[in-house]
Amino acid sequence: MKKISYIDDTEIKNKRVILRANFDVSLNPNATIAEDLRIKENLPTINYLLKQNNRIICIAKLGRPVSLDPKLSLKIIIPRLREYLSRALRHPVLSRVALWYESRLPPT
After folding, report:
1. In the chain, what are the domains?
2. What is the pTM of this model?
3. What is the rounded distance in angstroms from the CA atom of residue 87 to the CA atom of residue 46?
4. Nearest Cα to 76, choosing from 57, 90, 63?
5. Contact at 8 Å (CB) between 56 and 17?
């Protein structure tokens, strides 16, 4: 198997791609985005994959949640991501938290 150093070192077309994105942005006290640099840093990779007709599944986290905290939901990222992408997000789906983390949460 060929080792991929950079995403554009290989041809990835018409695939479903799982992308570990860093959307851990700075937040204001009222749970709005203060600094979106980390979203912007992911855009070249996301746009490259979209241009190659891929479907992207982004896996990300926000903050360091110790429980299910609505203030740390990735829902606040979606409008900003839509704003920056040249295409609209068709079906943004958010799971509660990453499975490995969710399994460690106390029952609700």
Report:
1. 7-102 (3.40.50.1260)
2. 0.75
3. 11
4. 63
5. yes
Which two three-digit tokens encode residue 24? Answer: 């851990």
Q: Is the dihedral of CA 63, 69, 71, 73 positive or negative?
A: positive
Rounded CA separation 69/72 (Å): 6
Tokens of 65: 């949640």
Are 101 and 62 in contact by the 8 Å Cβ rule? The answer is no
Residue range 34-58: average pLDDT?
90
**Residue 17: other Cβ atoms inside 10 A:** 16
- Longest Cα–Cα distance of the chain, Å, equals 47
Q: Which of 57, 67, 54 is nearest to 93 (CA)?
A: 57
Residue 2, phi-psi category: left (phi > 0), alpha (psi -120 to 50), beta (remainder) = beta
CA distance 77 to 25: 9
Non-local CB neighbours of 108 within 8 Å, separated by 6+ positions: 68
55 — pLDDT class (breaks 50, 70, 90): confident
